[in-house]
From TrEMBL:
The keyword Ribosomal protein does not apply. Belongs to the flavoredoxin family. One of its GO terms (molecular function) is FMN binding. It comes from Penicillium arizonense. This is Flavin reductase like domain-containing protein.
Length: 336
């Protein structure tokens, strides 16, 4: 069985008729508030056992080695191709120029909180529909200096000035994720990018190792010293971001019996590290062919970048002077 921890952090409740009503309420983490790991530890063992039985995020893929053996080899030398965009002659107001083909099928409405909708359906829908997603590969330490290394699916950069990142931790049976516990205790981490050649080692850190066991040893990845935080950087990564926790939001009314709290963590970058030979002279742009990023898809699937295309952004003041539709919209603007 393949255990993929990187795609199991969806902040939706366990829908087995335990919670009928969901209200989105977030609260800032208080310094002396009981931690989610404490609350999970005091939960009845029976509740945790039931929650674990109903938790189907980690899927059994059968004899994966046999399945993979039938597939073509991974071409590590394949260069990233740059093509034209899908509709290079697109004009303002055209929408999708496919003769209405994208308008034929109707949409099916879904209530994600319906009592008869299993949580697993929301998870599978989101990770297959919101794709690709970057891998948030975080190194952390706890208050005793014990190390942790773990990949996350619910991760994204959300601003550049200041550089900010967000990581989501979904409700799960029993205790909270080790990374979340460490972020609450020490409020420091390093975010490491994941390239194609790293994926086996990165995926290995997704194993549900006991608290205190270092995934550095499990993966065989190498540590590099950080400057502004205590956790180490992953030396194999092209790009490392040292960061400190700015805020933590816990979704208290989401928690079901036997399940940990769901939460999001806001992280502010304190230092960048870019591997030499992978960026331009002023370190303002990383070469995509050197980064070779991996994206997460649905199930246990990952995706690679094999081709790209470019679409420049336009400025209204320049376009409105040469386009009839934009000129009409500009003239009819009631706020002008």
């Amino acid at each position: 069985m393949i255990y993929v921890k990187t795609i199991g952090r969806l902040p939706f409740r366990q829908s087995h008729n335990l919670i009928r009503e969901y209200r989105v309420q977030t609260q800032s983490l208080k310094p002396f508030r009981m931690s989610s790991s404490t609350s999970a530890a005091t939960a009845p063992e029976g509740d945790t056992a039931v929650a674990q039985k109903n938790y189907k995020i980690v899927q059994d893929v059968g004899n994966f080695a046999e399945t993979e053996a039938k597939r073509p080899d991974f071409d590590q030398a394949k260069l990233i191709e740059v093509t034209k965009s899908p509709y290079p002659n697109w004009k303002y107001g055209e929408g999708v120029p496919d003769n209405g083909a994208s308008l034929v099928q109707k949409h099916h409405e879904i209530d994600p909180y319906a009592p008869d909708r299993p949580m697993i359906n929301n998870y599978r829908l989101l990770v297959s529909g919101i794709a690709p997603r970057p891998v948030g590969f975080l190194s952390t330490i706890n208050s005793e200096g014990q190390k942790n290394l773990s990949p996350f699916s619910y991760f994204q950069v959300i601003d550049h000035d200041p550089p900010m990142f967000i990581v989501g931790f979904s409700s799960r049976p029993g205790r909270v994720k080790d990374t979340y516990r460490n972020l609450k205790e020490t409020r420091e981490c390093v975010i490491n990018t994941v390239s194609e050649n790293m994926i086996e080692a990165v995926n290995a850190t997704a194993i549900d190792a006991p608290y205190g066991v270092s995934e550095w040893e499990v993966s065989g990845l190498h540590e590099a010293p950080s400057t502004t935080v205590k956790p180490s950087r992953v030396k194999e990564s092209v790009f490392n971001i040292e960061g400190k926790v700015i805020d933590i939001k816990e979704f208290t009314d989401h928690q079901a019996p036997g399940m940990s709290l769901a939460a999001t963590v806001l992280i502010k970058a304190t230092r960048f590290w870019v591997k030499e030979g992978t960026a331009d002279a002023d370190y303002s742009h990383i070469d995509l062919d050197k980064l070779r990023p991996i994206g997460q898809l649905g199930g246990v699937s990952y995706g690679r970048v094999t081709s790209t295309f470019e679409r420049p952004r336009s400025k209204w003041d320049g376009e409105v002077l040469k386009n009839e539709l934009l000129a009409k919209l500009d003239a009819a603007n009631p706020n002008k």
